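Lecture notes, continued. The same structure-token format from the folding unit now serves as the input rather than the output. Read the line below as a description of shape only.
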């Protein structure tokens, strides 16, 4: 028996040590001591071997556009939306595609091998992005699973063209139905948009992922309607509410009613810690609200939560490196998830939990799963979060697609060791 690739001695996320054999793009065996030959054998002993990172919320049509045509001076969500409106007519389909491909290179190098990206479907300018990202989805499919969400950024009803263009995008092959109820003209229009978009998803057999209540207004409660429509239309387990930042500011009694309704409807939540902590609370003086939704409370009700990245170098966020460990690190801090179990859950929220939200099949390290994985310069998931660990090796579809050197600093201090590693 000869395998294509054999990884020896890695530490699995549960702490066990195992060899992993890969054959024809699939994991063929996960055992303690595999002695069979392989075309390539790599010693990964002492290093964490993990299923790949997953980003369940991104905007790939806007990424790497920072500063074009100007920066977001106020730092608010609303100025970001205006700025995006200025940029859209200026960018060509080819430019969007090239930026997206560059970003996918970054993602691949970071072991980020599945991304759910929203794509603006407000107007014909947005459809340039749809065409570009459909092409990118195909071009990167051997190493990144790209799932696209039809996202009427300017409001499904508020924009005169968004409804038609959103339907057109779904006809063109966009995977998921999106929305932005808190940006419609009235609360009533927001509720109505949730209903119609969920009906569209139910008719077409698609998943739903709405930007929902991305505001500090505690009365923005469209998540309630989203849970209701999920239940009414039989979409349980196929619907996510992204951001949900208003929940941070909601009345506690109301939240105690809302969370069981979300759990009952199996509506998942996708907070975006890097973005929520920078965009929200901008109208506050002090105390200044954090704007991250109630992550530990949702988890305590059994609601599935996946952390998203949302933005990298675009009208809404001036930083970012495609590192989902940055996202987990920020989420851990802002949600105060500091117990060992909670820190571990933060790692799961950028891997297994987000994979489940996206409905990825064959994800994981079990025999028969797709051979996508990442080897990290860390001994455990929590250490990976602490270090935002170097990706020593990225494997996609059974092939090594990226290699990095371990993180090590050469010291020149008399009487001290020559090198420093930050692992313990
Ligand atoms: Fe977003």
């Amino acid at each position: 028996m000869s395998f294509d690739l054999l990884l020896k001695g890695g530490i699995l996320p549960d702490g066990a040590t195992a060899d992993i054999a890969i054959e024809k793009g699939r994991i063929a065996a996960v055992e303690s001591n595999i002695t069979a030959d392989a075309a390539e054998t790599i010693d990964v002993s002492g290093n964490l071997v993990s299923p790949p990172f997953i980003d369940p919320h991104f905007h790939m049509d806007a990424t790497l556009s920072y500063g074009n045509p100007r920066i977001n001076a106020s730092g608010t969500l609303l100025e970001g939306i205006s700025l995006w409106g200025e940029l859209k007519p200026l960018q060509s389909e080819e430019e969007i595609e090239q930026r997206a491909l560059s970003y996918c290179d970054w993602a691949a190098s970071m072991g980020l091998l599945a991304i759910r990206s929203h794509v603006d479907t407000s107007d014909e300018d947005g459809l340039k992005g749809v065409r570009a990202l459909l092409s990118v989805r195909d071009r990167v499919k051997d190493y990144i699973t790209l799932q696209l969400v039809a996202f009427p950024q300017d409001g499904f009803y508020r924009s005169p063209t968004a409804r038609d263009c959103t339907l057109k995008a779904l006809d063109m092959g966009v995977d998921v139905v999106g929305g932005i109820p808190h940006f419609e003209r009235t609360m009533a229009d927001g509720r109505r948009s949730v209903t119609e978009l969920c009906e569209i998803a139910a008719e077409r057999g698609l998943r739903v992922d709405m930007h929902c209540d991305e505001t500090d207004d505690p009365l923005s409660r469209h998540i309630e309607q989203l849970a209701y429509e999920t239940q009414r239309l039989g979409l349980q387990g196929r619907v996510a509410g992204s951001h949900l930042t208003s929940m941070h500011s909601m009345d506690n009694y109301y939240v105690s009613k809302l969370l069981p309704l979300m759990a009952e409807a199996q509506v998942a939540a996708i907070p975006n810690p890097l973005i929520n902590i920078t965009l929200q609370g901008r109208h506050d003086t002090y105390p200044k609200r954090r704007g991250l939704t109630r992550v530990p409370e949702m988890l305590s009700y059994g609601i599935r939560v996946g952390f998203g990245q949302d933005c990298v170098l675009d009208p809404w966020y001036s930083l970012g490196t495609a590192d989902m460990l940055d996202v987990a690190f920020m989420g851990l801090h802002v949600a105060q998830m500091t117990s060992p179990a909670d820190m571990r859950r933060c790692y799961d929220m950028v891997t297994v939990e987000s994979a489940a939200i996206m409905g990825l099949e064959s994800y994981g390290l079990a025999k028969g799963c797709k051979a996508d994985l990442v080897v990290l310069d860390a001994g455990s998931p929590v250490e990976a979060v602490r270090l935002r660990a170097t990706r020593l090796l990225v494997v996609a579809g059974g092939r090594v697609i990226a290699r990095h050197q371990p993180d090590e600093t050469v010291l020149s201090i008399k009487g001290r060791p020559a090198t420093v590693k930050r692992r313990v």
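Point for the exam: The chain has two domains: 2-51+364-409, 53-358.
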